[in-house]
Amino acid sequence: xxxxxxxxxxxxxxxxxxxxxxxxxxxxxxxxxxxxxxxxxxxxxxxxxxxxxxxxxxxxxxxxxxxxxxxxxxxxxxxxxxxxxxxxxxxxxxxxxxxxxxxxxxxxxxxxxxxxxxxxxxxxxxxxxxxxxxxx
Length: 136
Known about the structure:
By secondary structure, the chain is α/β, with parallel strands linked by helices. It contains five helices and five strands; from the N terminus they run βαββαβααβα. The mean pLDDT is 95.
């Protein structure tokens, strides 16, 4: 399953995804991973959540980030949810340049029974339909 938290910069997406991450620990079985592009929010998360600073790995495209996610999943088959903050900033693209990524992410989520929750800085009007279907 894929879910996308959307809105313009400053609309509270990060606070919402952090709250969802912390709440997921009580509701789900399995490991929870939070991926961000820096360490800024590391201490806002429960200590049981695996925090990953993906900014340290030099990703510059959705394809590279997809490979990174595959690597994360290959190292831990007990992951139930992966929360990704600031997705577009992390991969340095615009919303309309992510169709390949979302198509492959859907297959990855189904194959490994993992829930992906992403925060995406975009307004409803600029989001393509293939992203809008995941809006929460």
